[in-house]
What does this fold into?
Amino acid sequence: MVLRLDCPHCGPRPADEWVYGEVPDPPDYLTEGDERDVDRGFMMSNTEGVKVERWFHAGGCRRWQTITRDTTIG
Amino acid sequence: MSAPDHFERLEATRIVAGPRALDEVESPAGGHLVRLAPDDLLVIPPLERVDVADRYAIIEPESGFSAAWFAGSELPRLQGVSAWEFPRHDPAFAQGHLAGIPVKMLFDRGGVRVLVPTVLARHLEERLGMGGRQ
Amino acid sequence: MNEFIEAQVAFGWEDMRSSYDVVIVGGGGHGLSTAYHLATRHGITNVAVLERGYIGSGNSGRNTTIIRANYSIPEAVRFYQRSVDLYSRLEEETGRWIMHDRKGLLWLVHGVPGTRNERARSIVNQAFGADTVYVTPEEVGEICPEVDLNAGGGEYRVTGGSYSPHAATARHDRVVWALAEGAMKLGVHVHQRTSVTGLLKVGDRVTGVLTDRGPVAAGVVVSAVGGHVSTLAAMAGVRLPIRTHPLQAYVTNHYARSFRPIVASAEMGFYVSQTPRGEMLLGSRIDNQPSYSYRSSYEFLSYCSLPAVTLLPFLRNLTILRQWAGVCDMSVDMSPIMGYTGVEGFLVTTGWGTGGFKGIPAGGEQMAKLIATDRTPELIAPFSLDRFKQDRLMFDPGSTGTTH
It folds into this structure.
């Protein structure tokens, strides 16, 4: 089964219609400016489990949506 | 004939404005209001003049889509090349990929009018096995 | 085939010690290759490889087994050519038949920009030691007569390509078992069905691992896991520029004729080779979503098959037998990340993206050298984690399945 993401405007649509948007999430313990910038630019939590994500529905409404997803299932 | 052989360029009006202002826009007689996104409205056929209660509204003639009408008998075939469920009742609007190509679908009177970005129309014709322009 | 080889590995599966000089997390190709090279090249045998499932059950058993060095940047060409060379000697060295088969790889293009890329690629390859030549459409037709040079009624007309005679395939489970056996013969421990649940730390320093079979102290802990590296690294306090995406593949039923080369078209977004069983093996780009799921999809079959049957019409007559998915650790610049992490006692070999199999021998060799000498070998210095901090990224348009 293909992963479906639920678009608030268009309804559930397969992941192929979407473009994933990485949201930088530097951890709180990084306080020094340069370190935070490197983290924002390159590093990712790559969460295993439930995560709030940003997706662009390129094949439908062409708007950014906020979607909660479990990366161990989807 | 139930299956069209090609898509034809569609003239419409595109309005990008605040959602509440778009809620107020009235459908032209015999036409359609297609809500592409909360802040994005396609009006078919194009409007002569339009009032939108949003001073920042963007109102432009939209000629980037092509359209074709498929009768109800064609729906199972179209559903077969789509990874999402078509609406069960009409009139209804839906958008998503059809045969891997982004389309807008206006379900009405048992059939469906499919809108596709004109640059992709030829690919969709090919993937749907339509005859194409001669 | 696992059982067959396993039965021949005549060494005991030892009890776990409370401490090792080196603990390698992940019993796939890279972990086992690191252990193998530690033992054979450096005499370091107080080593444990910990594997959550059975060895080779992760991405080492879920890939498309392509071995090639036709990358587009000098550092990658040199590294992967080293791996190509080591692969071609692995049977002799281990005494195990890994079904290594030099097939050659055709990388096809369909227009002027691609043609320019492949010319550049062949020049870079030749300059840095990999045999890749630019080929004309006529030569493509001679190397692989099945290719429709006028694909898609001319829309995907083949305008040329590069040909890498060095490219090969090998049998994935035979590779991991040959390395495991070679390492175990010299005293390395391989512990299967052993999950790492945490890291032992003294201050910021990593001093061992916690497993579901108890704690194990280690002089150095090496992460060679595929798919869960960010979680493991986070336990050490290390952030990685990695996102994990599924990658799918499928095989067809038996094609009765011999299909010699590996054929790839990055522009059309697929690649294909023939397995020793005669099946056609196809792959495409990674899945859209970051995910740890091994779920496969119909959509993949569809977007992989359409370009494939367009370029190679004979594929239309075959039937898809089975499909599967692995999970790929995609680094920001699509190049691997090897070596120090900034945390003492914790090393990584990761970011192997869609091409980890081809890097197994050289990746293990170089990681072993780094551990034994406590210095980063010149060959992998460009692939260090601190390149991101230094803004010295290693973008390589020659890694496949990633950007298309």
The mean pLDDT of chain C is 94. The first strand of chain C starts at residue 19 and ends at 25. Chain C has two domains: 2-62+172-241+332-387, 101-168+243-331. Chain C touches chain A through 25 residues (CB under 8 Å).
